[in-house]
User: Which sequence fits this backbone?
């Protein structure tokens, strides 16, 4: 469970960045 | 030992620590969360080379810098309080508790502070790539700081990897890895830092909403909101998931805490979670008053949270205080008896050792070993002392959960209107957005109360009550420093808020 929690935590950071960039491009703010 | 306890001193020492921690807790979550979001903004700037993204990054960095400086000041005072007000605690567990705090200071905080200087003052002085690297290192360093602080805190909630040395009457570390990978520590770290991302996202949304309402820095505000709302939305889902894990850990290691969160006096199978209710704060353990003025429970959910199984038995406060033979739960009354045996045998062991009576020393040690896990209970006067303040724990827990349910909806609304391109026209949402920071702060402070008030009366769960952990000071001494700190922290807070408001009013640089 420890490993799963820590990897999910890292995924929140990485996915947030990727999703932000995608959305910014989609709505032409980037 | 217990005869010398001055309850007024303990209460003032607890109040002082709570005051320091709650002020500290205004600044720290913002630091932990906003460093990631600033690293995102900075990365976008370096990738695009756009001056607008540079100005946006610098603006949020400036607000973070103000917040960081004051957070450090309150944190240092808190560490000193372990020595001044909780010297018995520091003496008894310093071998274990000191290690993560030392690593935090030497490795994580220095890493964070060094790169903070490069991040803050490195514009046009170092290469773009090294500057960006520094920003990411500030985010990693500040979250590594949180790792060690939360490892220390988790050890107090679930003291693993230690053994009590009867010769020195101190707790000593036996397995460092057990302390670091304590499941409570991992659940605390992931829950606290993801809640901090959520809080920082609300901070950015509040200020950006204000700009949109005023029609100032519109493009910068819209961009800031998109990134903040995305991390806020993902983090809020993860906060719920890790919150569930934290409740499970509480049920396994601190069942009294979970019972207090839910105002559950009588344990039951298929226990329900209170969806809505008003707790009767006047109720005492063992009296026949109703615990709630009114309540609506969702059946089975508390059993699921506690044991991952609908229909399972969740012990209530009465079961844990008076015992429940049917469920095999030993009550606090019996634990107190065993704890007193442990204390008496420890004393006998010391006397026999001093007298050179090896046989008596061995006999005392053997009896002590049989009862050592209840050592802390021996310091409690009566079984009811094992119960934390139920009303405060219940209210704080439910404020945290209700707000935690609202936040993802807020992030979704901001993302939806950003996607539609009509965010600036949604005055109602932007007006609500400006106060979101305060709701985030309320949720965070409630979370701190849940974790720390809920574990009372223990400084270290089952092993050391706060009444024994304190220093030998008079109540008046602690009272004086309480008010000194109250004034100092209030001045610091007013200073921070005024500097921030000034910077917000100036806004980011425009090209």
Assistant:
């Amino acid at each position: 469970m420890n490993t799963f929690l820590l990897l999910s935590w890292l995924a929140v950071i990485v996915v947030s960045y990727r999703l932000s960039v995608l959305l910014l491009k989609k709505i032409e703010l980037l | 030992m217990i005869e010398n306890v001055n309850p007024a001193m303990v209460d003032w020492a607890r109040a002082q620590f709570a005051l320091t921690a709650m002020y500290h807790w205004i600044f720290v979550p913002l630091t932990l969360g906003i460093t990631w979001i600033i690293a995102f903004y900075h990365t976008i700037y370096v990738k695009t080379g756009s001056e607008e993204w540079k100005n946006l990054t610098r603006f949020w960095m400036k607000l973070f810098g103000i917040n960081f400086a004051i957070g450090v000041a309150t944190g240092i005072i808190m560490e000193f309080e372990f020595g001044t007000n909780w010297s018995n605690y520091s003496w008894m567990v310093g071998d274990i508790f000191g290690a993560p705090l030392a690593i935090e200071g030497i490795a994580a905080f220095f890493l964070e502070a060094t790169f903070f200087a490069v991040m803050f003052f490195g514009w046009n002085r170092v290469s773009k790539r090294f500057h960006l690297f520094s920003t990411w290192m500030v985010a990693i360093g500040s979250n590594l700081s949180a790792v060690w602080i939360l490892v220390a805190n988790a050890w107090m909630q679930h003291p693993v990897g230690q053994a009590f040395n009867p010769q020195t009457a101190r707790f000593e570390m036996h397995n460092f890895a057990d302390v670091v990978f304590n499941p409570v520590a991992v659940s605390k770290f992931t829950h606290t830092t993801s809640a901090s991302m959520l809080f920082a996202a609300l901070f950015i949304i509040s200020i950006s909403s204000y700009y949109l309402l005023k029609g100032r820095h519109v493009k910068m505000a819209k961009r800031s909101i998109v990134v903040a709302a995305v991390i806020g939305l993902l983090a809020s889902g993860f906060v719920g998931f890790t919150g569930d894990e934290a409740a499970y850990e509480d049920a396994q290691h601190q069942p009294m805490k979970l019972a207090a969160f839910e105002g559950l006096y009588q344990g039951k199978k298929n226990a329900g979670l209170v969806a809505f209710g008003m707790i009767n704060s006047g109720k005492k353990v063992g009296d026949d008053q109703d615990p709630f003025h009114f309540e609506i429970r969702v059946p089975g959910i508390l059993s699921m949270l506690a044991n991952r199984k609908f229909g399972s038995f969740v012990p209530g406060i009465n079961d844990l205080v008076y015992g429940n033979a049917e469920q095999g739960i030993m009550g606090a009354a019996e634990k107190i008896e065993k704890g007193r045996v442990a204390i008496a045998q420890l004393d006998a062991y010391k006397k026999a050792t001093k007298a050179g009576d090896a046989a008596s020393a061995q006999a005392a040690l053997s009896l002590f070993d049989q009862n050592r896990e209840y050592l802390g209970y021996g310091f409690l006067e009566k079984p009811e002392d094992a119960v934390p303040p139920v009303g405060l724990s219940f209210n704080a827990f439910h404020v945290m959960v209700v707000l935690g349910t609202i936040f993802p909806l807020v992030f979704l609304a901001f993302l939806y209107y950003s996607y539609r391109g009509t965010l600036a026209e949604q005055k109602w949402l932007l007006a609500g957005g400006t106060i979101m920071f305060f709701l985030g702060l309320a949720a965070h402070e409630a979370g701190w109360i849940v974790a720390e008030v809920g574990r009372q009366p223990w400084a270290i769960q089952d092993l050391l009550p706060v009444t024994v952990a304190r220093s030998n000071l008079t109540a008046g001494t602690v009272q004086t420093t309480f008010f000194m700190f109250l004034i100092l922290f209030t001045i610091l807070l007013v200073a921070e808020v005024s500097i921030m408001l000034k910077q917000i009013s100036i806004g980011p640089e425009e090209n």
Remarks:
- The CA atoms of residues 38 and 393 of chain B lie 34 Å apart.
- Chain B touches chain A at residues 36, 40, 43-44, 48, 181, 183, 186-187, 189-190, 193-194, 197, 219, 222-223, 226-227, 230-231, 234-235, 238, 241-242, 245, 415, 418-419, 421 (CB under 8 Å).
